[in-house]
Automatic annotation (TrEMBL):
Species this protein is from: Cutibacterium equinum
The protein's name in its UniProt record: Beta-phosphoglucomutase
NCBIfam families in alphabetical order: HAD-SF-IA-v3 (TIGR01509), PGMB-YQAB-SF (TIGR02009)
Reactions catalysed: beta-D-glucose 1-phosphate = beta-D-glucose 6-phosphate
Similarity annotation: Belongs to the HAD-like hydrolase superfamily. CbbY/CbbZ/Gph/YieH family.
EC numbers: 5.4.2.6
Cofactor dependency: Mg(2+)
Gene Ontology molecular function, alphabetical: hydrolase activity
Entry keywords, A to Z: Carbohydrate metabolism, Hydrolase, Isomerase, Magnesium, Metal-binding, Phosphoprotein
InterPro entries referenced in this protein's UniProt entry, alphabetically: B-phosphoglucomutase_hydrolase, Beta-PGM-like, HAD-like_sf, HAD-SF_hydro_IA, HAD_sf, PGP-like_dom2
Length: 244
């Protein structure tokens, strides 16, 4: 960072949610692992699903894309099905809906709190009147923001529901982030994208944004930089310290 104040250099901030603002990635990872291992047990000779599988094939992607890409990595093909499929359906959509049910069960039972450093930086950005949006592949983003007490901080939410309704391509395409900037009324080249997933960093890098800030929650700083991040921090408290 140069000596120019963050809120003078940039005019909007577009946050991913899971793993950036809230540790919902841990809930997602548990739900994915339970769902996929149940499915893999149906297929002879398959090794268990691992956290590496999550980062390689699922992290940051729309739910059905994550199901499809992971199964493809194991040579498993299922019918696409329909988003209305029940969680017991042996389809891409059915498995995705099963994972969603597991996620909601854990979220309702345990709740969620934002990362301390993330909440601190969001508070400082709010004080400086910097427009902010959440851009998430999740269809549960509104529920997560509400559970974390952050709904009022983000008047703009581009989530999986809006992406489907508006036919926006998911990450690593930049479409959802570009839509977030449009709804904020800030040109993309004046906005910062904040991401912890390789697919999300690639989306930011492809969209012509002013800066892509990577947050290393386990993917690895090198992988985020290789994907196109301009800078990587381990926690957003580092950004708060620079603005305090």
């Amino acid at each position: 960072m140069d000596s120019t104040r963050f809120d003078e250099k940039f005019h909007g901030v577009l946050f991913d949610l899971d793993g950036v603002l809230t540790p919902t990635a841990l809930i997602h990872m548990r739900a994915w692992k339970e769902m996929f291992n149940e499915e893999l047990a149906r297929h002879e000779g398959q090794a268990p699903y691992t956290d590496e599988d999550y980062f390689a094939h699922v992290d940051g992607k729309p739910r059905y894309d994550g199901v499809r890409d992971f199964l493809a990595s194991r040579g498993i093909t299922l019918p696409e099905g329909d988003p209305s499929d029940g969680p017991d359906a042996q389809t891409i959509c059915g498995l995705g809906n099963r994972k969603n049910d597991l996620f909601n069960t854990v979220l309702t039972r345990d709740g969620i709190a934002p990362y301390t450093g993330s909440a601190r930086w969001v508070g400082l950005l709010h004080e400086r009147a910097l427009p902010m949006a959440v851009v998430s592949s999740s269809r549960n983003a509104a529920a997560v923001l509400k559970a974390a007490g952050m709904s009022d901080d983000f008047p703009v939410l581009v989530d999986g529901n809006r992406a489907k309704a508006e036919n926006l391509a998911g990450k690593p395409a930049p479409d959802t982030y570009l839509r977030g900037a449009e709804l904020l009324g800030v040109p993309a080249h004046q906005c910062v994208v904040v991401e912890d997933a390789v697919s999300g960093v690639r989306a930011g890098a492809a969209g012509g944004f002013a800066m892509v800030l990577g947050v290393n929650r386990g993917v690895g700083a090198d992988r985020l930089l290789q994907a196109g991040a301009d800078r990587v921090v381990d926690d957003l408290d580092e950004m708060a310290e620079e603005m305090a």
